[in-house]
């Protein structure tokens, strides 16, 4: 079954135009003018149950608007939308029992009361039976090491502690789909890694479908088998991260450290005809650049037998560079 089924989904906002200057502001008082913002333009995609999908794009691309429609917060202007078997904005009460949502920049916990009291309130909101709630809470508290935080008010938690509590809050009713909007924003690398590991395990053990928006491409690399990339309200890529890298990677660099001084001409001679390029950093260290279509082992074989190599490091183009490259150009074929 599909977890998310979206067809030609569109969201337009009508916003007031602000005329410039004092005279403009004065005119605005009497005759307002409006313009239309097309935040999401006829997007279509399907996400099967159990998939972790990254939803990425630059600021203003339409990610949050999509998530808000998928979670029933916003009503689409047009298009078809089925999440977990429900039309989110129509069947809200039944629908929310099957989804969990974490907005990295907003909290679903009550600021001044103990964390566990917030969890108890959420139990009542979602009508989770007490035994199920206890079992699930114990499991999550142990997995995310929240033990001694439970009695503290949310305002006294660090951002990393709060984010771990937000995750628990979103999972107490055992949803089958989890929407995460920037879940690692502002966190240090240790907490980010912990949260990524937790999400991977959740997906593996419970088959939870996860849709994740993020500006941190390490989140995508660590978690997502699939990426949907949005630009100006339109999907410009929908496919695997591997394919994205293969099509858009500018190649790889192989860093060599030699045991004896080596000349640039000698290195170029070794790889002649392959289409690689060399850069000599100093006489003991050089970098070979390979276009992505050239096989690393073939190129390495030419050098390994002929030079005194002490160390080799292969550096791939990272995902951030690839995405930056894509945004500089037009549409991407999946
Ligand atoms: N309530 C609203 N009223 C008017 N325009 C809106 C509203 N919400 C979003 N927009 C506009 O719709 C477009 C898409 O916004 P959205 O917040 O979905 O982008 P985003 O990809 O989530 O960006 P970010 O990464 O900055 O959160 C933007 O031009 C934004 O200004």
Order of helices and strands: EHEEHEHEHHHEHEHEEHEHEEHEH
Oligomer: single chain
Task: Indicate the low-confidence ranges by residue numbers.
Answer: none
**Structural class, judged by helices and strands?**
alpha/beta
Counted beta strands: 13
State the major sheet. 6 strands, mixed
What is the CATH topology of the largest domain? Rossmann fold
What is the C-alpha radius of gyration, as a whole number of Å?
25 Å
Question: Helix tally?
Answer: 12
Lateral strand order in the biggest sheet = 5-6-7-3-8-9
Instruction: Give the fraction of residues assigned to helices.
Output: 25-40%
Separation, N- and C-terminal Cα atoms: 23 Å
> For this structure, what is the CATH homologous superfamily of the largest domain?
P-loop containing nucleotide triphosphate hydrolases
DSSP strand content: 25-35%
Q: What does the overall shape look like?
A: globular
Domain ABC transporter: 24-257
Organism: Paenibacillus sabuli
Keywords: ATP-binding, Nucleotide-binding, Transport
Protein name: ABC transporter ATP-binding protein
Description:
- By secondary structure, this protein is an alpha/beta fold.
- It has 2 domains: 245 residues, Rossmann fold, CATH 3.40.50.300; 66 residues, Alpha-Beta Plaits (2-Layer Sandwich), CATH 3.30.70.1150.
- Helix content is 36%, strand content 30%.
- The chain contains 12 helices and 13 strands.
- The protein has a 6-stranded mixed sheet with strand order 5-6-7-3-8-9, with helices on both faces.
- A hairpin with a 2-residue loop joins strand 8 and strand 9.
- The longest helix is centred in the middle third of the chain and has 18 residues.
- The mean pLDDT is 88.
- The protein binds adenosine-5'-triphosphate.
- The site of adenosine-5'-triphosphate (ATP) has 12 residues, from strand 1, strand 2 and helix 2.
- Adenosine-5'-triphosphate binds next to strand 1, strand 2 and helix 2.
- Keywords: ATP-binding, Nucleotide-binding, Transport.
- GO terms for molecular function: ATP binding; ATP hydrolysis activity.
- This is ABC transporter ATP-binding protein.
